[in-house]
Amino acid sequence: PDSMANSIWDTRTISYHGCVVQLFFFFFFISAEYSLLTIMSYDRYIAICKPLHYGTLLGSRTSCVPMAAAAWGAGFLYALLHTANTFSLPLCQGSAVEQFFCEIPQILKLSCSHSYLREVGLLVVSTSLAFGCFIFIVVSYVQIFRAVLRIPSEQGRHKAFSMCLPHLAVVSLFLSTAVFAYMKPPSSSSLSLDLVVSFLYSVVPPALNPLIYSMRNKELKSAVWKLITG
Question: Which Gene3D superfamilies match (predicted)?
């Protein structure tokens, strides 16, 4: 709502508390989404590689609810830790954040204390955990593709691939944009590039998620095809 109001009234201000809340919810949702994407890769692995065990491991509410709760709980703790650590720093380099939302790297530029290294260390730990989840997703899909290629019928392979490809597309889009945003060399950093990259990883994946996941819907695919062909 603040972004929409700022666009309409051509303003670029946000309160201190508004920035705190924005940063918290940004990290809460982005970390919860990544956790859920990791869980979904495990779901695909069990469904394709161990289908007879699916009902026992993931086919009931008692098994799905704890994993979903763990994803949201981890996202909450992760966001709380980052937010508290970031805004405990003294900010004395002005009050202008060179970004269209409150982002940790831009806020750290306003700090005048060496204690910002705590947040840098926390980001390194977070990156290591994210890399661990990435390895888990990659290993899961290696096992999945090996199992799919052993399916004798073409129809069975097509069904398995159609189950995995939307999730794989979302993971690829999510990770590629985020990695490019945070891993690019500082020498290549510029205000316009930072704005474009942040838009890519914070806006584009959530906007495309519904479209990617719903492409398995035959009615939607037929409507999109009619729209394209006129």
Answer: Rhodopsin 7-helix transmembrane proteins (1.20.1070.10)
